[in-house]
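As a warm-up, study this chain.
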Amino acid sequence: MSSGPHHRADAAAITCGIVTVSDTRGESDDVSGQRIRALLEAAGHRVGFYRVVRDEPVRIAALLRGAPDDVEVLICNGGTGIARRDTTYEAIAGLLDKEITGFGELFRLLSWEQVGAAAMLSRATAGIAGTRAIFSLPGSTKAVELAMTKLILPQLGHIVGLVRV
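Now compare it with the structure written out below.
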């Protein structure tokens, strides 16, 4: 974190929510959701909300809108591909007031280094909905680790600080 005036409002400990979108996984076998939790907590953040929801856009959107007020960041994983049942992007895009287009672009660039051309099939996205940041990641644990360690955690305090202002 920089000490310059642009970073004056950066947040330190943030209450986050995790939403796993899956038609097949539950809380007991949600490895990617558990990995998100571990990375957040290791960085000093708190997980105040965690749910697994089927890949149905109306249910996803309702769950995100209904997250507790103290949750400033929602990190979703799953349902970002191009299969017929992958609808997380549609659910989240409809909620966003501002899209953080660079997130998806950088995620796909970094993914390309790991999985090659298959990276273009990801519809990972992020943005701001009201006073809450939302990130949408693929369900793969490797993709979750990449997004969390290279993109989300390094900028999370700054993003929340800007949204709070």
